[in-house]
């Protein structure tokens, strides 16, 4: 009898052990299902209303890009033409000090500067029609106490490096580039593990860099800020601005990075930053910048797919008129094992022939059709985002239906209020699809239509007199 009990216990234990991975798998599937079901049940469908009474000028918050440190020498020189086509305004580069060998220690112990390699990269940016957005990173080996992400031997030497950088790039007698953005470091909470106190204190780094920005001579105007953290963190937000106020430091812009498939995270970050800023009235005019954006900070095959394009369109539609700049990461893939390898670039690498535009590139071309003056749009939903403009006589409405699960279908009611015309052509241009035209007349000042949208699709609707 005792032997049977032992066998029974062993069999029971074996069954429990075997069931654990199955249970975990099923739980994960169930959790995924619950998440999708919850989002479907709690999300709001759109009922778009566009008020055509009055249009206002705006500056697009797209056209801004960040390029990662994929290669050391001339990494953007092969994509000048395709990048110039999408009309970039600013292009951000990091690794300025550890990739381009700008500073070394001379025989007398003094710092010597050589800008030739950096100038090549900056000149490429200028040829693209953009201005540089310079991430002041990482620590030059000539002054570092360790690696490229460690503190310098002397913070005064860090100050000297930053000062000479600004004087060279923005100097009236040097490169003479106006309105350059200078950002103190890149993801300090990750690269270097900087904190807000202790031996690796980001605030100390910012203090000496800001002092450098004050001491520059004979330069054009420029913007100065940071911290370009891996996300928007209240502790970094408050501590930097409190420290800056206490020491009378300039913070022209506050920057952070955001990678998320959830578009609401972009809206939430911007809202939170605006609320938090109310506690720092000295910096009420500080600009907010998401200086890297995407849906995954790691390699992801979706970066080579249409999903990436719809995510980009939805991100910009959802944040329209809420933030000044969101930088797309990145312009060009680094060299990889094959042409399409899930890298972040909107263009492929030249190792596999002429760089090929990926879907996100096409999304930015699509966005560029939406320049002009803007109209207010009300009634956006959880999945469907939109914004409207006029570029003269025609009226355009960009509508995006984005669902990270690629499931949501929506039939969107659209009302144009105070129509300026009674007879018009109604044009629908589908992203990566066809264009259709329909003649319409209306006797009502308010004109209604419906737009049926499959998951992860976008269209521009145009009213042409």
Structure summarized in a few sentences:
With 465 residues, the protein is α/β, with parallel strands linked by helices. The protein is built from 10 helices and 21 strands. It has 3 domains: 1-41; 44-55 and 372-462, Golgi alpha-mannosidase II (Immunoglobulin-like, Sandwich); 62-369, TIM Barrel.
How are the SSEs ordered, and which strands pair?
Elements: H1 2-42, E1 48-51, E2 56-57, E3 64-67, H2 80-85, E4 90-93, H3 96-99, E5 103-105, E6 111-113, H4 116-127, E7 131-136, H5 155-170, E8 180-184, H6 202-215, E9 222-229, H7 234-246, E10 253-259, H8 263-277, E11 287-294, H9 306-318, E12 325-329, H10 359-367, E13 373-375, E14 377-378, E15 384-390, E16 395-401, E17 410-417, E18 423-430, E19 435-441, E20 447-453, E21 457-464
Helix pairs in contact: 5-6, 8-9, 9-10
- The CATH class of the largest domain is Alpha Beta
pLDDT averaged over residues: 93
Percent of residues in helical segments? 25-40%
Number of domains: 3
Structural class: alpha/beta
Strand order of the largest sheet: 3-4-7-8-9-10-11-12
And the CATH topology of the largest domain?
TIM Barrel
CATH superfamily of the largest domain: Glycosidases
Rg, rounded, reads 26 Å
- Second rung of CATH, namely the architecture of the largest domain: Alpha-Beta Barrel
Biggest sheet overview: 8 strands, parallel, barrel
What is the overall number of helices? 10
Number of strands: 21
- Sheet-strand content, in percent, reads 15-25%
Q: Span between N and C termini?
A: 93 Å
The stretches of 5 or more residues where confidence is low (pLDDT under 50) are 1-5, 20-39
Q: What form results from the Cα inertia axes?
A: globular
